[in-house]
Amino acid sequence: MKPALPARLLKTLAPWRNAPAWHIAFSGGLDSTVLLHLLASLANTETLPPISAVHVHHGLQAAADAWPSHCQALCDSLGIPLQVLRVQVQPGASLERAARNARYQAFTEVIGAGEVLLTAQHRDDQAETLLFRLLRGAGVRGLAAMPECRRLATGCVVRPLLAVSRGALQAYAHEHQLKWLEDPSNADPRFSRNYLRHQVFPTLTQRWPQAVSSLARTAEHLSEAQGLLDELAHMDLIAADQPSAFPWLPLPSLTLAPLRDLSDARQRNALRHWLTPLTRLPDSDHWASWYALRDAKGDAQPVWCLADGQLHRCGERIWWLPTAWSEFSDVPVSWPDPQMPLELPGNGQLSFSRNASEGPLVIRYRQGGEIVEVPGRGRRDLKRLLNESGLPGFVRGRLPLVYRGEQLLAVPTVAGAWAGSMDDGQLHWLPQTCDQGLS
What we know:
Belongs to the tRNA(Ile)-lysidine synthase family. The protein is an alpha+beta fold. The protein folds into three domains: 4-224, HUPs (Rossmann fold); 241-326, Uridine Diphospho-n-acetylenolpyruvylglucosamine Reductase, domain 3; 333-438, no CATH class. It contains 15 helices and 20 strands. A hairpin with a 5-residue loop joins strand 12 and strand 13 (349-353). Helix 5 packs across helix 8 (192-207), helix 5 packs across helix 9 and helix 9 (211-240) crosses helix 11. It is elongated. It starts with a helix and ends with a helix.
């Protein structure tokens, strides 16, 4: 009969037994050392995916230079391959957050499709996370603390020890005479988590001995509540996720009317769910900008600026524009051979269907007052044509115009409503796909 902790771990990891590989986030500390030892031991008796360890070296303190060799020695003794990744931590307001961001960015370079990154956060960590976020005024999603599983790149992160106490891990380590690293920064009370761990929780548990387990259980309840809110958001977004008139435009968008019919609380819930993969979310004080955007007159084009992009309203539709969308140059571009597609810097690709006139041509962007020849309609003002098409305003400045000298020869087809033509050829523009906008 297996000891309780190995059996418990094996049961927790059952949904991922068929993953292509398991990678252990191995810092060398107590928690990850126990997880590494547990999995190495289980691999001797169970059929598990290939196991390897990943150590991220942040270079934030001199003592850390010796940690990779310690990790290598332990992995060698257990027969586990180790990969050491060195990262640069970007300075910022929160060193903890910057180090975490650098660490997970490194992990994304390791995780392959369907593979699993196993991390060693435990029940005490979960309780600390809940209390820390509660003090910061987090909502339900934040108070749900750390999920057992979440996506990471094309794989996922799994935390199989969330139901296990720090004491149980310490007992296992002592029983198996494991040696682990002690990070000196873990004792520094200037870091919020350390202050909670060393100052707040001892006082709480002295008065309420079950405080840690109770807080972790509360996080589970809140995680379940968040799951229900996500289901509600999914239902509400189905109604709003209607195709736009511009399917070639590679940006997330929603129809506004179905959202407007919801209560304010359901609107916020649906938008949080939709925006979560796209940007860091605003705090409660900044949702007034959403109401201003929602309630603006139909001919207005309001913008809501968020951390990683902007939400635009064009008529009865809202569009998400990631920061990278605005990073393009409107400097003219030469097109020496129109028979070949042209890559526009930061602005996608331009090409002709059927025949194209001989080059060289030049690509320019709107200055105002342009006139274009429309088959069957004669010469038309470009601004009026764009208004007729309903093309969102944020796209119009990026619309590539084809010139020979000072003569405007062609404008890209816009939803089939009209097109400039040259020698029976239609001009097609495929705007730049932005991975952030499509995540």
